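To illustrate the input format used throughout this study, we show a single complete record. The first block contains the structure-token representation of the backbone; no residue identities are included at this stage. The design step must infer an amino acid for every position from geometry alone.
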């Protein structure tokens, strides 16, 4: 368990894990809706509801815990373009690339707002003089 936790504490291994999981889910949705079933309804549900929600969640969680990292989004874009052209995603009615970009954009934006990984500047130690100046002074005492 500690090994898995340490994997998700570092930026690059965590990005790789999120991208592998995200790619596996998208390929699973594609394979399940085109090869296993020939019905249009699972395809629509998979790519209009499940895929954007999972894409949003992956971007949100990564950005929330690791901050906005350019390599995560660059790799996600490259994977999306490769899937679109190599696997025949050109039959998806709402554009797959645009849907992924919008879900990543909103997921990353909200993750950055709620994130704990945003490094705030550490407060430097104040001298006694500065502490005395900052203490509350009642104006009625003067």
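Output of the design step:
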């Amino acid at each position: 368990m500690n090994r898995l936790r340490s994997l998700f504490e570092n930026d690059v291994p965590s990005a790789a894990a999120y991208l592998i999981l995200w790619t596996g889910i998208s390929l699973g949705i594609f394979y399940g809706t085109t090869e296993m079933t020939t019905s249009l309804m699972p395809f629509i549900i998979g790519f209009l509801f499940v895929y954007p929600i999972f894409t949003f969640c992956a971007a949100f969680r990564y950005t929330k815990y690791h901050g906005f990292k350019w390599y995560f989004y660059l790799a996600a874009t490259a994977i999306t373009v490769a899937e679109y052209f190599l696997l025949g995603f050109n039959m998806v009615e709402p554009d797959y690339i645009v849907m992924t970009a919008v879900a990543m954009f909103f997921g990353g934006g909200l993750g950055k707002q709620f994130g704990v990984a945003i490094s705030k500047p550490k407060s430097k130690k104040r001298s006694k003089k500065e502490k005395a100046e900052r203490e509350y002074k009642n104006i009625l005492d003067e």
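Structural context for interpreting the output: The radius of gyration is 23 Å. The mean pLDDT is 80.
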